[in-house]
Queue: 2 jobs
Job 1
Amino acid sequence: MDAGLTQPMVQFFHVYKAYPGDPPSLTDINLTIGKGEFVFLTGPSGAGKTTLLKLIMCAEKATKGQILVGGRNIARIRESAVPYLRRNVGVVFQDFKLLPHRTVADNVAFTLDVLGVPRAECRERVMRMLKQVGLDHKASSLPLRLSGGEQQRVVIARALVNDPTILLADEPTGNLDPALTLEIMDLLNDVNVRGATVVVATHDATLLERYGKRTLRLESGRVVADEDGIKAARRMAG
Amino acid sequence: MSAFAKGAYFWRSAAQGVRHAPFVHFIAVVTIAIALFTAGMARGLWQLLDSLIATLGGQVELTVYLDQAAPGWRAEEVAQALGHQSGLDAHVVPPEDALARLKLQLGELGSALDGLPENPLPRTVELTVPAGRRTPEQLRALAEQARALPGVVAVDYGEEAVQRLSAIAMAARAGGLLASLVVAIATIVIVSATLQLAIYSRRAEIEIQKLVGATDRFVKAPFLIEGVLQGLLGALCACAGLWAFAAFGGPRLESLFSFLLGPHGGPRLVTASLVAELFGAGAALGLCGSFVAVGRFLRV
């Protein structure tokens, strides 16, 4: 999908990010991700993929430059407004970040609890979401009793249960075997088909080739290529 | 989105927090209970001193002791003269009445007086002094007038005892306040430390809450409620301890100190107002401790 044809959802203008004492994590990043677009971020470890995702979800502040998310300049956003912005951004992590002592349903409900959704409605939405990710029969299980792929699906359910406009996934398949990787990627693809903007950080070239989506390649904190997944995969293989 | 649902979530989360780290909360509850029990006992002591002062103060009277050999008519003459000079109510207390009164005041120990071969108490004249005339100067002047009358051997007025007791009560109150302040600060520090442990044990949960859009207030509210719950539980334990003390130790102490407390005993230790104050203080201590904990440790 060409970002130029759609309404922009995420825009970076000359964004820099540096941590004290370290070389810059991101340098002069300029990019636009359109509404409803599916974008892969790729590049070697330490290229700045996670930092870029953290900037979008306001977990970090840019050292310089402007970032617009949904038309809102998050470089100038007040600290107290950050939680409200995050409610529109679903996040999926490689290490799941599930609460081991809470059931699958409770983990997914966490997002709705924060919004103050009444208990009955919350239960209904959680079950609907678990059904979508194929885990409604595991609602009462504890996360540690699930497989890696199932745990990642719970995380995706938690990220999507409040219908965010953007879904960020940081190496969502990093800990999974190839079969589970495809299962999770198909799920993320479905989410994108239903209208959400999806940004996935990965260094798995097979995924880029298989899905052929727009791919932003980062190296040493700079965007060095903006191309389709097949080209990116070939470049990585070469 | 409903505020009620959020409130319900906060209470659920606070209850889960207590279940999640019961030992940590137990320590905080016991600390608060000990602090409140001590405060309750101190308050009981103040009330007792206040009641003693009120009893003694209400009974300030000039007692004029007559010669052991003075006849009844002499006592009547002294009473009439004193009443006339001072404008106060003066009445004669015969030795047998004085002995009966002493016996009553001594309570269980009063039976010891039964063995006396004869009544050793002299005839006395008592003048009840109204509150407006209880200044040391006026009491001294009255005593001088009484001493000048024939047959009078001694004059006594309880003002000195009242003043001494008032000074003791004031010192006890000041010391108690200072001790309460120190105990309250120590309690807040301990409650805060226990809640910091509770917060630390739930840091993963807090991190996820923040990632899914929880505000600082949302993250902090359950911990503040946990603090209040600790305070209320501590107050409940303290009230139970005070009640047990009053029920089992109170009668024995009243009997031991009946000569001070009089036939009606001391004031009740556990009253509705004390219970309300302890619950209020417990909630405040818990809340302060949790405020310190979330302020210092929950930098979200």
Note: Chain A has a mean pLDDT of 90.
Job 2
Amino acid sequence: MRGRQFQEPDEKADKSGARIALIWGEDEVAAGTVTLKPLRDGEPSQQQTLPLAELQQALGLALA
Amino acid sequence: MSDIRAVRGMNDILPEEAACWQHLEATVARLLGGYGYGEIRLPIVEKTALFRRSIGEVTDIVEKEMYTFDDRNGDSMTLRPEGTAGCVRAAIQQNLLGVPRRLWYSGPMFRYERPQKGRQRQFHQIGAEVFGVATPDIDAELMLITARLWRELGIAGGVQLQLNTLGSLASRARFRQALTVYLREHEDALDDDSRRRLESNPLRILDSKNAETQRLLDGAPLLSDYLDDESREDFARLCALLDAAGVPYTVNTRLVRGLDYYNKTVFEWVTDHLGAQGTVCAGGRYDGLVEQLGGKATPAVGFAMGLERLVLLLQAFGCAPAPTPPDVYVLAVGDAAHSAALVATEQLRQACPALRGAACGGGSFRSQMKKPTRAAPG
């Protein structure tokens, strides 16, 4: 799952009200990673793919 | 299924609106708990005789509005049209009387009325009842609780307190006699409902919405002229307590309430923000009801508030909370990714119990990106 698919803001995803999307595609499964995509304007971080072990910490920072 | 729809006047409450109901119910429960009221959970179905004996045979509720049916044993049952009768029945049956007792209840009530905005056939109330305290400080407490509730909900600017005292049963009987004599002299000018009530329940004529009847009442004897000394003193003390606590009120001498069991204090919180349906909370003293239903004579006072109307009022005042959105939305493509996402998010929930996460179902990634609009929060 490549980042380019998420570069255009998806209005409908946005309407869920969620601040962050957690994305698993084939690449993430193979690599044991997950992609975090900020859904709201003003979220500080950019989309990032990181190891599962770091998810909790990254999410804590992103949601703080 | 297309021909099977909800019963008229019995509504679904959808998740978007349920957030407002939860906020309202949680606020009331916290507040009543803080005043020492214990929750009692009562059956929705009671024997019909309970309501006939408590609410009164000649009332709109008992005559026209109850959902009454014979059960399979042939016994007459009724979906409760209000909460006080069942609460009194339980207090007697469960031996809760003898010491001062503060109770509250919540749930659906049923009346066959013409549905309109803020009036449904299945409607919801939260009520409080206090048993074993005869003095008006407890009447004042109930009004202070509700006044505080409106402040906490942000709707205090939209409701006003109206009070009256009906006096003792004896003074009510004297007034009833005088009122009947007066109205009988003008019987021709009464509306049909009022003429029918002249024999059975003349006090209810004071409630009449008919303009001609209301004009006639301008010359009628006043309830306040027939009050016994004790009722008069208790009412003065109640008013003094409200003054001291800084709760504004209006005395409305035509306020009698639609139920037979009230004596002394009756009160209503009314609003002019919801059109014709003005009452959001109402109550009063019913010192005779416990004994009337077979218990030991016990003074009692209570109120019930209508949740449908309070929800409308919260919305009108912009005080309805929005549904809490999820923190994260989970997207996964392919079976392996679904498994990985399920396991990983489950670990995440374990580590962060407060995390609000919504997961999409299966399907293509494209359709998943469209699903979050329908995701139910939490």
Note: Confidence is low (pLDDT under 50) at residues 1-9 of chain A.
